[in-house]
Amino acid sequence: MGGDIDSKRSTSGYLIKFAGELWLGNLSCKKTELFSSTMATLQCNFYSLALNKPCYPRRRRPLLQPFSSSTRFVSSNLICTSSTSSASTSRWGCAVSAVVSEENAVDSSFSAADVFKLTYLEGNSWIWKVGGTNILVDPVLVGNLDFGIPWLYDAAKKVLNKFQLSDLPEINCLLITQSLDDHCHLKTLKPFSQKFPNIRVISTPNAKGLLDPLFRNVTYLEPGQSSDIETSDGSKISVKATAGPVLGPPWQRPENGYLVRSPKGQLSLYYEPHCVYNQSFIEKEKADIVVTPVIKQLLPNFTLVSGQEDAVKLAKLLQAKFIVPMQNGDLDSKGLLASLVSGEGTIESFKELLSKELPYAKVIEPTPGVPVEI
Fold first, then answer.
1. Distance between CA atoms of 267 and 115, rounded to whole angstroms?
2. Label partner for 13 (CA 20 to 30 A): which of 184, 204, 260, 335?
3. Dist. CA 145–CA 154, nearest whole Å
4. Model-level pTM?
């Protein structure tokens, strides 16, 4: 599944959940009929592994070493400068915030309220700072990601593996795209909610059963609906939901992507963590910044996360100036499903494809834990 949502329909989390239900004997007849062919493919591939036939896993990149600096990119004229920051360093050994020095700041028509500071926390997790407001996105920050069935899939972060909730800066809003554990991670959200029970939360309605017991101030957005986040100076950040992947049967409500606009409306960001989108909806929108996976994650005959040409098409539809690629499959993973997943494409091959369609767009590769300003 990837690209235009109209023709491609599922995701890794649902497949993991399905396999876990099968193992526990809780699967209904309807689900069995609907997904029997998918599990047959998994079973077939498992036997092929036993016969020493390769599944071509994606080569992992070397462990990144975080550093205490930030980079500013200016949208109006595509000038970028690097600068040393006065960043605070947390106990996990890398900067969680940074300030661009005055002498290295680039003149532009954008105010400080219209700067996005993006900090990648690996997987699907981010901190976005805009208009002085910190937005925590899809946090998986406590323990491993295992969907409750670690024999099937168990993943740990490579760089920020010693992260603790106490390392977070002050968070003003929590943004949830999907209802499954790789986005709505209860191991993280339960202790987080005890610390911040009244925090503003914006989420897909599919996560209502998980979030309502934890938080008191939740706004659920259907695709096409919008909500505002008020900043400390009274200005507003606009958040609009878009249609993301359908997790399971075709009649189920899609999960969310989001369009986030800065307080003065001069800069906008689009985010959907599986590179799945509704083209008829997206082509009516624009986004200066697109945060998306660009490397595909595949099972035999099944796309878990899209990228490459689908990510290029997405950027072109939104007329993006900056693309921030996320490597949400680049985790230390183990288990049956992890052994079956392979990658397709690289960031370099994505850049080559992008240069043919959007030659003016700039690809900004984030380092986990190190803020990037756009």
1. 7
2. 260
3. 6
4. 0.76
